[in-house]
Amino acid sequence: MGTEVRGDGAADEPSLAVVVPVWQEAEVLPMLLQSLQQQTKPPRRIVVADGGSTDGTAAVALQWGAEVVACTRRGRGCQIAQALPRCWEDIIVIAHADMIFPPLALARIADWLHRHPDCVGGCLGHRFDQDGWIYRLIEWADRRRAQRGLAYGDQAQFFRRSVLERIGGFPPWPLFEDVALSQRLRQAGTVVYLDVPVTVSVRRFRRRGLLRTLWQNWWLRRRFAQEGEAAVEVLYRRYYGESPPRS
Fold this sequence. Notes:
38% of the residues lie in helices and 17% in strands. With 247 residues, the protein is an alpha/beta fold. The chain has a 7-stranded mixed sheet with strand order 3-2-1-4-8-6-9, sandwiched between helices. A 3-stranded mixed sheet has the order 5-10-7. The longest helix is centred in the C-terminal third of the chain and has 18 residues, at 210-227. The two termini are 31 Å apart. The model is unreliable at 1-10 (pLDDT under 50).
């Protein structure tokens, strides 16, 4: 599918698809899907890439009108890579299940890429759903990093589907697929930080502990920076306590 045409015959902005990798997300997924339906420019397609959930996640996705892909291997990048062949839209947006998109987010992406053909992708940015100076500090650091071209997955990354072949495809990794995608996009062309932040949950900080999570994230990123793709499987086991299981 190419560029949409409005009833007046004028060319519209590019079409969008949203891919959501999930596992056991029945509780929070409706809030994300509702925020996507309430966009001023709704996505043409939402694909929920399920890593073998047993809590009814797939049923929830279908109830909200999303397509569901039953993935053979768990891990965000693995699941996203398996879902992408279902998407023929011009722009791909990666969402996490605990995100809430502001109503103008997708329209801003489409408009920016329509007006800047040299831009291959980027991210929206994020803010946490809790008060506290430490969360504002993390947001500031992540924003500065994204402005320099290195976005994380919880900042709502997006890219042109046409650029996938140029960057060697989407990284089918269970961990650090977001960092690898940012690096590949920077090599392929101009990237943008749009500063239209999605709201994300602090649940992982609560579950693991704030200081422990910050320390672990720093250590994992350092290891990945030193060893690259060769360390991904080991780091996944370190972070989740298990190998990326096959569904």
